[in-house]
Design goal:
The protein is an alpha+beta fold. Helix content is 38%, strand content 13%. The strands form two sheets. It has a three-stranded antiparallel sheet. The protein has a two-stranded parallel sheet with strand order 1-5. The longest helix has 26 residues. The radius of gyration is 19 Å and the shape is globular.
Length: 201
């Protein structure tokens, strides 16, 4: 039997169609449903989002047309046959804006704005959740904005840590059974250089 082709870990979104497809809170939320890397039908996506299936059909088709979701099979649900979908990659990244490509920069800002708007909603829900932990080795909530001056060596060290975090969060699911102690988490990050912030002595 032919070995199933493995999804790439990261897909860089290079086309305008892909960037437009991902620049939506609802479609970002749809992509975020696949934390366990398991295929989902439109009905299953809608159930997890607390929305009617009719409200997300258009968005699923748009993500499929842009090449971000793909059909991977079918399943029976009562008398109906449902198509199963899965993201084409384990993670998505925006392409670096080229020289003079203000449109690319605007697309990145728009997509990040959507991601942080979603993070605000998740933060409010977490603060009302009794299972949220703010300290200790099983802490699952932290909110911070920090600034510091780093040398080239220190910046390289920071990026090494970020790559390890990225590997942990994008690794394939383990073969073990899920446990009630497992925690679904969301991590929203933005690292950027700051200009004209130096304090004059």
């Amino acid at each position: 039997m032919a070995k199933q082709k493995r999804n790439p870990k990261i897909l860089v979104l290079r086309s305008e169609e892909q960037r437009r497809a991902i620049a939506s809170p609802l479609r970002l939320e749809l992509i975020g449903l696949f934390v366990e890397r398991k295929p989902l039908s439109v009905a299953q996506m809608a159930q997890r989002m607390g929305r009617p299936a009719t409200a997300i059909h258009y968005h699923v088709r748009l993500l499929e047309k842009a090449g971000l979701l793909r059909r991977v099979g079918e399943q029976r649900s009562g008398s109906r046959t449902e198509v199963l979908y899965r993201p084409v990659a384990e993670a998505f990244e925006l392409e670096e804006p080229g020289d003079g490509k203000s449109g690319d920069a605007e697309a990145i800002v728009k997509t990040l704005s959507m991601a942080f708007r979603m993070a605000v909603g998740d933060t409010k829900a977490a603060l009302e959740d009794s299972s949220t932990r703010y300290s200790g080795p099983r802490r699952n909530f932290i909110g911070a904005r920090m600034h510091c001056r780093l040398s080239k060596k220190e910046l390289a060290e920071l990026n090494g840590h970020l790559r390890e975090i990225e590997k942990m969060l994008s690794r394939p699911p383990t073969t073990r059974e899920s446990s009630p102690d497992d925690t679904f988490i969301s991590l929203t990050l933005a690292l950027m250089p700051l200009r004209n912030r130096e304090v004059k002595s």
